Amino acid sequence: MRTHASRPAGSSTPRGSGYLDGQMLVAMPGMLDERFQRTVIYLCAHSAEGAMGIVINRRAADLSFPDLLVQLGIIQEGEGIRLPSSVEDMNVLMGGPVETSRGFVLHTPDFFIDDSTLPIDDGICLTATIDILRAIAHGRGPSSAVLALGYAGWSPGQLESEIQANGWLNCPADPTLIFGTGLDAKYDLALRKIGIDLAMLSSEAGHA
Questions:
Q1: C or N: which end of the chain has fewer Cβ atoms within 10 Å?
Q2: Is the pLDDT assigned to residue 133 strictly greater than 90?
């Protein structure tokens, strides 16, 4: 395992393809699917084969990051008090309804594990192995990170259909929004980033 700030050659996401990987999806106020109402999703992958993203504004109920480290055997019960405050306060998110027992870490690119870390854009990477949790617990992890349990997935063409049906808006990713701790404010902040005042937005209007 190596941890460093450089990215593998050729790892940047091609743009101009019409795909939205590396961007944020913001649910329209009229979203009918309760699982995604008022959600902001960082889109990790989007291609002709489908899409995958992480909900970044929904907290996992009754589960703190130190509790999770204990459950995984990374630290012993009672050792949480010795964790750095930044680790203690790290959000554990409900990343989506698929594979909810699996953890996914979105993080800054100052941490990299060969064959495990996926660089998504210049500011965000995804790692889904327990090694990154061990590194974070011992102060060797990325400077900013969020842990999500599960993810949101779309079959080929499904996301495009939902966008055309006014289910989602999209905007460029904002690391401060992804890694910020104020989960309850992220939805309104994401809409403002698009230039939309929620009070003025009709659920019947607008296209992504």
A1: N
A2: yes
